[in-house]
Amino acid sequence: MPCDGVVYVEIRCRKTLLINKRVFGYEKFILNNTKIGERYVLKVESVSVDETQRIRSIEVMATVRPTMIQMPDMPSDLSIQQYVEPDDCQSVKIGWLSANSLTDLKYCVYVQENSNSLESLDFSVKPDQCKVRYGKSKRSDASNNYRTKTRCYIGEKGIVLVEKILKLKPLTTYTIQVTVTKPRGRTLSYDLLKLDTNSCGLN
């Protein structure tokens, strides 16, 4: 998990290449049919000099016991979908795939009003996952500062979760962030969603 930036990840056993992938944000790799005593080599490198300057650090966790992983088991699709309701100008409905878990997971929805053009220029769909720590970060540095929290709740398992965000301004751009926290574990974020609210029948 690179803390901002993009890396190449390579996993080999002896000279056999098992995994070679470009990683931006959180990624999980599963090695099946591993053998006792075999040595697996993980190689992580930056994709460019510019990316090297962006990456503050890299977090790696390896285990043979999946239940020991502190991170939520995120779905392969981390996108947040907006359900269009043309007549609604002060709220939006969003949905996302739930994380995989046998235990209850806590989901939080955050809203950030984009008040200037610089925020639009700097926008990246992928959040810095290393800033989303343990669900206990301070407002100033957690979740990329998208800290106008609408609510947190325990989500159902194995379904698409849907949330309606109320009390928004018409004709306004917002960035939406959804985080999920594993009990006694880490907090991870879905991809960020930027959206524009409708006008209230104004021409």
From TrEMBL:
Species annotation: Schizaphis graminum
Cited PANTHER family: NEURON-DERIVED NEUROTROPHIC FACTOR, PROTEIN NDNF
A Pfam family assignment: NDNF_C
Compartment annotation: Secreted
CC terms in the record's Gene Ontology section: extracellular region
Protein name per UniProt: Protein NDNF
Residue ranges of domain Protein NDNF C-terminal in the record: 18-191
Signal peptide, first to last residue: none
Main location: secreted
Gene coding for it: Ndnf
Keywords: Repeat, Secreted
